[in-house]
Write a structure and sequence with these properties.
It is a single chain. This protein is α/β, with parallel strands linked by helices. It has a domain of 321 residues: Metal-dependent hydrolases (TIM Barrel, Alpha-Beta Barrel), CATH 3.20.20.140. It is built from 18 helices and 17 strands. The strands form five sheets. Strands 1, 2, 3, 4, 5, 15, 16 and 17 form an eight-stranded mixed beta sheet that branches. Helix 2 runs antiparallel to helix 18 and helix 4 runs parallel beside helix 5. It is globular, with a radius of gyration of 22 Å. The chain starts with 17 loop residues before the first helix and ends with a helix.
C-alpha cells in the first residue's frame, strides 16, 4: 500500500448467504468429483507446454498428476495408455500457475467475511492465479484462510503471508502492529514468527531504531523481512541489512534524489518532488547497488499507473462490490478537475516510473509481479495481475520475461523452486491452461480455460460457474 496514492473467514459451513452457500457447495462437489479427487490420476493430454525458463514451446505433451504433484511430463501417449481422468488440451497452452506477489486479502474493506473469503480469494483461482504473497492482513483471518485452502475447504490460492504489517506508532492501518521503539519491533517479530507467518512486512512509518531492531531480530530468527523501505531509512541501508524485497520502488525514488537527506529528516516527498530533485548519478548508483546485491523489486505498476481509460475498459469490474467500484469511479472523475500542472506532473511521473523499471531490468535487477490488490484504484483481485504483466511489457520486458515475474521468479524468491514455477515432474500441480500463446502477446494470459490448483482441476465449465457465482456475490 503506497503512501503516494489514495487509500481509502470463515469456513463454508457458516457462510450466511444463499449465493455463498452455493459457492461452498460447488467447491465441495468439485472436491468429490473424479477430476479433483486427490486419489485420482489426472492427465492433461496433448497440450503445448510453455517453457518459462527458455521460452521454448513443447507441443503434443502430456502432463500426469498424482494427488497434488506432477509425476510425468512427456510426449503424449496413445489414448489407451492413459489412465484416470483425462483432459484433452489439444490446441491449448499449459503454463505454471501464476503468482500475485503483493496482495491484501483481509485488510480494510476486504477484511469482511463476504469480500475476503467468498470473493477475493476465489477470484484469484478464476483468473489463473494459484499463489499469492499476502503483504498485510488480519492475522487470525489470513491464517485461517491459509489452513482452509490447504485442507480444500475454501476455494483460493496458496498463501505466503506476513500477517499484520509492522508500522509506526501512529499507523492508521487496521492490519498493522504499531511499533514505537526497538523493544516493540523485536516483540512483534517474535510473536509473528511463533504464530507461523512466512516473513515480516515493514511499512513506511517504522522508526529508524525500531527498523534496525526488526532487521536484527529477523536475522536471528531466520525469517525474511520485506516490504517498504521506511521513511527513516536509506535504500542502501535496507540493502546492507538484508531486506529481501522493495515494494512499489519506495526507497529507489528517494535514493535517486539529491534531497534524500532531507527526506530522511522528514521533509515532504512525492511524485512532483521526486521529479524536481532527480539526479542521474544517484539513480545509477542505486540501480547498481540493487543489481549487485540482487534485491528483488515488486513495483506494483498498475496500482500507480492505471488510468481512467484502463478503468472504463476493465472487463473485471462486475466481479467487485458495486459500492467500491463506484468509489473508484468518483475518485477518478474527481481527478479530471485537477489543475493542468498536477495532471502534467502525474503524466511525467508515470513515464519516469516506467523508465526506472526499464533501467533496473536492463541492469539485471530481479522483479516480481504484484498488484496491491485489492487496495488502491481499479485492482480487482486476479484480473489485476494480468494488467501488471502488460505493464512490464510496456516497461521493456519481453512477454517471456513478464511471464517469468509471475511464475519462475516467485518460486526463486520464495526458495521454492523445487515445488513450483515450471511445468516439470516433481513439482506441485499448480497449472493454467490458456487458449492462446502468452509468448506472442502477454495479454493472452487472460485466456484462461482451465486451472489446476494443488492438483484440483477446474474445467472451463467449472470456471464459468464459479465466475457467475462470484458476480452474484459482488452484487450483494
Amino acid at each position: 500500500m503506497k503512501q503516494i496514492k489514495r487509500r481509502r473467514r470463515q469456513d463454508c459451513p457458516s457462510a450466511p448467504s444463499r449465493v455463498i452457500r452455493r459457492i461452498c457447495l460447488a467447491a465441495g462437489v468439485l472436491a468429490l468429483t473424479p477430476s479433483l479427487a486427490l486419489s485420482q490420476t489426472l492427465t492433461i493430454r496433448n497440450a503445448t507446454v510453455v517453457g518459462v525458463v527458455d521460452g521454448r514451446l513443447k507441443p503434443h505433451t502430456s502432463v500426469t498428476i498424482e494427488g497434488n504433484r506432477i509425476t510425468r511430463v512427456a510426449a503424449t501417449l496413445p489414448p489407451k495408455a492413459t489412465q484416470g481422468q483425462v483432459v484433452d488440451a489439444t490446441g491449448l497452452y499449459l503454463i505454471p500457475g501464476l503468482w500475485d506477489m503483493h496482495t491484501h486479502a483481509y485488510s480494510g474493506e476486504t477484511a469482511s467475511f463476504r469480500i475476503g473469503s467468498d470473493l477475493l480469494l476465489p477470484l484469484f483461482i478464476a483468473n489463473g492465479v494459484t499463489g499469492i504473497r499476502d503483504m498485510g492482513s488480519n492475522l487470525d483471518a489470513v491464517l485461517r484462510a491459509r489452513g482452509s485452502i490447504q485442507e480444500h475447504q475454501l476455494v483460493g490460492p496458496r498463501i505466503v503471508l506476513s500477517g499484520p504489517m509492522l508500522d509506526g506508532p501512529m499507523s492508521a492501518y487496521t492490519a498493522a502492529i504499531r511499533v514505537a521503539n526497538p523493544d516493540d519491533g523485536r516483540a512483534a517479530v517474535r510473536m509473528l514468527k511463533e504464530r507461523g507467518v512466512d516473513f515480516i512486512k515493514v511499512q513506511s512509518g517504522v522508526p529508524r531504531d525500531a527498523y534496525l531492531a526488526i532487521a536484527d531480530e529477523a536475522k536471528q530468527l531466520h525469517i525474511p523481512f520485506e516490504g517498504h523501505v521506511p521513511d527513516a531509512i536509506r535504500a542502501k541501508e535496507a540493502i546492507e541489512l538484508g531486506q529481501a524485497s522493495f515494494e512499489h520502488l519506495l526507497g529507489v525514488f528517494e535514493a535517486s534524489s539529491r534531497d534524500e537527506d532531507a527526506f530522511i529528516a522528514g521533509a515532504k516527498k512525492g511524485p512532483a518532488v521526486f521529479l524536481e530533485t532527480w539526479d542521474l548519478r544517484r539513480e545509477r548508483a542505486i540501480v547498481h547497488a540493487l543489481a549487485q546485491h540482487h534485491v528483488w523489486q515488486c513495483p506494483t505498476i498498475a496500482s500507480d499507473l492505471n488510468s481512467l481509460i484502463d478503468f472504463v475498459q476493465d472487463p473485471s469490474l462486475p466481479y467487485w462490490p458495486r459500492d467500491v467500484v463506484e468509489g473508484w469511479r468518483q475518485w477518478e472523475m474527481g481527478r479530471l478537475n485537477e489543475a493542468d500542472t498536477i495532471v502534467e506532473a502525474r503524466r511525467r511521473f508515470a513515464e519516469h516510473e516506467v523508465d526506472v523499471i526499464r533501467k533496473l531490468h536492463r541492469a539485471g535487477v530481479p522483479f516480481l509481479a504484484g498488484t496491491d490488490a485489492a487496495d488502491g484504484f481499479d485492482l480487482v483481485p486476479g484480473a489485476s495481475l494480468h494488467r501488471e504483466l502488460e505493464w512490464f511489457v510496456t516497461a521493456g520486458f519481453t512477454p517471456l520475461e513478464a511471464l517469468q515475474t509471475a511464475t519462475i521468479n516467485p518460486s526463486s524468491f520464495l526458495n521454492r523452486s523445487h515445488d513450483f514455477g515450471a511445468v516439470a515432474a516433481g513439482k506441485l500441480a499448480d497449472l493454467v491452461l490458456l487458449a492462446r500463446n502468452p509468448l506472442t502477446d502477454i495479454r493472452n494470459t487472460r485466456s484462461v480455460v482451465g486451472v489446476i490448483a494443488d492438483g484440483r482441476y477446474y474445467s472451463t465449465a467449472d470456471l464459468a460457474q464459479l465466475r457467475l457465482q462470484l458476480i452474484g456475490v459482488a452484487a450483494k
